[in-house]
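Supplementary Methods. Inverse-folding protocol.

Structures were first reduced to a discrete structure-token string of length 339. This string, shown here, constituted the complete conditioning input.
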């Protein structure tokens, strides 16, 4: 079976050429066609010999996923993609004053079962292949005719439940001969799959890591996030500390503000205790309402009070800018269906 060429990192392409008795610099030539000139017909790769063009065409495809639907909000755009097997995923483009960022999906559906999140309404159908993540970006760039500067892997799915493909994807978009997105402009967010956080620590990528914490005690976190019953707070925080010690990088703690559930002063104080002394910053996320009607958005006042407690205790904290609510493009609202 032909493989999609966007699954191939530079290293893998180099090995492919070496195995086929060719020089490894052909890999870079191919990448220049794909990512620089955006030429997807191997027979137009004019600096390669005819036989090599034919060989590439026999071994690879450059088939694309498709944009099924596009929704436009004020400074956010949502793309619904149809995959080859007709499954659907979403990605969101955000226009910030500091540049364009894209939030991409890593799985069809999600098995993590966080009680407040829309994306998990559909259980995981399958992992995305690397090319399906790369192509989300290529298609968005084509659509807007601009380059994407930041990528967050925070759409549908748990990226560390599709670890190998996500790491391969990161390596490709970071490669200077591919999309050349700086490592510090890439963020991967996990609900806390500890064994993978440990693996990630050892990779020595300069990519940002975010942990979806959302509750400062096991009792509450286990109610909101089933993953906590497998990796409790103690285990996940130890692994985050080890990551920080190893990489010397600051970790983002995401904390979604659920009215009267996790936004009390006592929760803020428990959070302060939990992260004391750690090189982290807390991102408070105003809850985007979903079909989980048991959860409501915290009021501005409650968010401010929570924020003040953290500030007064010398925690680095910001409140996430709200995006995309009117077109259901905000955090936790993405899903694998169209309306
Ligand atoms: N599975 C990964 C990637 C998803 S990231 C993770 O859990 O980190 C999406 C972020 O948005 C997570 O922090 C998630 O908990 C949060 N989120 C989920 N539902 C939300 C909602 N309705 N409103 C705001 N944030 C939400």
């Amino acid at each position: 079976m032909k493989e999609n060429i966007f699954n191939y990192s530079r290293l893998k392409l180099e090995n492919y050429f070496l195995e086929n008795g060719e020089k490894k610099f052909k890999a870079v030539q191919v990448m220049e066609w794909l990512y620089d000139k955006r030429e997807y017909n191997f027979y137009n790769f004019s600096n390669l010999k005819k036989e090599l063009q034919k060989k590439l065409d026999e071994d690879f495809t450059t088939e694309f996923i498709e944009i099924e639907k596009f929704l436009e909000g004020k400074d956010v755009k949502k793309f619904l993609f149809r995959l080859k097997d007709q499954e659907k995923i979403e990605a969101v483009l955000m226009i910030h004053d500091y540049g364009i960022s894209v939030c991409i999906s890593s799985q069809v559906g999600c098995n993590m079962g966080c009680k407040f999140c829309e994306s998990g309404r559909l259980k995981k159908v399958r992992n995305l292949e690397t090319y399906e993540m790369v192509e989300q970006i290529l298609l968005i760039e084509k659509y807007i005719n601009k380059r994407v500067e930041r990528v967050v892997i925070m759409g549908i799915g748990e990226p560390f439940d599709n670890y190998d493909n996500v790491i391969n994807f990161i390596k490709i978009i970071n490669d200077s001969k591919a999309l050349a997105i700086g490592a510090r402009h890439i963020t991967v967010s996990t609900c806390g799959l500890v064994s993978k956080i440990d693996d990630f620590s050892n990779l020595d990528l300069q990519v940002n890591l975010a942990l979806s914490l959302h509750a400062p005690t096991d009792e509450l976190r286990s109610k909101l996030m089933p993953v906590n019953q497998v990796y409790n707070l103690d285990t996940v925080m130890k692994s985050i500390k080890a990551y920080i010690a190893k990489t010397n990088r600051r970790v983002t703690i995401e904390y979604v503000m659920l009215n009267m559930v996790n936004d009390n002063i006592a929760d803020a104080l428990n959070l302060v205790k939990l992260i004391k002394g750690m090189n982290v910053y807390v991102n408070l996320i105003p809850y985007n309402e979903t079909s989980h009607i048991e959860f409501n958005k915290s009021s501005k006042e409650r968010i401010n009070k929570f924020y003040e407690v953290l500030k007064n205790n010398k925690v680095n904290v910001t409140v996430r800018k709200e995006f995309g609510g009117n077109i259901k493009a905000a955090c936790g609202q993405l899903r694998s269906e169209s309306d």
